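Structure record:
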Amino acid sequence: MTDVAEIERQHSELVNMFSNLNDAVKKNESREIIYKIIDDVISFTRAHFADEEQLMITSGYTEIESHKTMHRELIDEALHLKGKFDYVDEHAFRDWLNHWPLGRVLAHIKYADTHFEEYIAQKGIK
């Protein structure tokens, strides 16, 4: 079973993955390399969301449906924007990567996930 410590480890891993993505963009790595990193981030994020949602179920988290909606929206947005990458020039491609991904994920972790972690702490779940 996934516990709070594992969720926190996954959050740290996501931040590291986005840092690697940002580094690849700054180093002007090829789109192929950047696409691979994006695919890895999306795959890891899906697994993380599944683990987090399972913990929500087992803890009886009452706001699970709205949190799941946020998860779906983040994945859908990432897939939609990734699909557009083939149709934008290099400047637009790198501009988006320099601004969007890290901010959206960090905001989700900081606000939505913090609310869930507070709920878990109140229930005394570790």
About this structure: The two ends are 11 Å apart (CA to CA).
